[in-house]
Task: structure prediction
Amino acid sequence: MGLRDPLYWWYERRLERQLGSIDIPRHVGVILDGNRRWAKTSGFANVKLGHQAGAEKIFDLLGWCDELGVQVVTMWLLSTDNLTRPRDELEPLLRIIEETVTRLRNEGWKVNPMGALDLLPDSTARLMKEAGAATADDSGLVVNVAVGYGGRREIADAVRALLYAESEKGTGISELAERLDSEDIAQHLYTRGQPDPDLLIRTSGEQRLSGFLLWQSAHSEFYFCEVFWPAFRRVDFLRALRAYGARNRRFGT
Result:
């Protein structure tokens, strides 16, 4: 341990120096994957301990982002598919999410709940909405908390909201169809008014988005990390930023 700590410190400083010459992404999205597998490989019989360790890691990540100048972070905590998990696993996970959102609210960050909140238990949905309202005027790091989230559901909700808004204006379907463009839909996404994610990170070694930010990720850079989320370190984050900085972002040109 005495040898390992100085080496880790040296490597971390080296990565930081390398970041000095690259652009830091404005918006980072993270799929926090591997909590249950981390718990099992760590010898814990109760996967709740993995979710709890993963929740603690969130605050490390947000601190790193705040320090380095990232403006928006989107964290996928629970998908719509996750809502079908066994009750004895889902209920403790929802309690951990509620505790996490409460802590985020008290940290001075701007909390933006996103997802199909109507699918969540009333207590969870209410707490998330209250956190969003209480921090709406905060000027710090924007933290999108994706709970009960699915990319296809988000697009469907955006189109539905657009249709309702245009209907209230008296716009006919034919008229809307003639002038509809992508920006009209983007204005009704959960992330409306925010820059699209520059960098999307997924932990645990899985190399797929699973529907995360389907619309917004058209020009995002992807970084897949082998480590399980609770074991994600600052050097892992710095490596992701270094990889992002080394890419030639041409945006389809």
Remarks:
- The two ends are 49 Å apart (CA to CA).
- The first helix runs from residue 4 to 19.
- The domain at 23-245 is CATH 3.40.1180.10 (Undecaprenyl pyrophosphate synthetase).
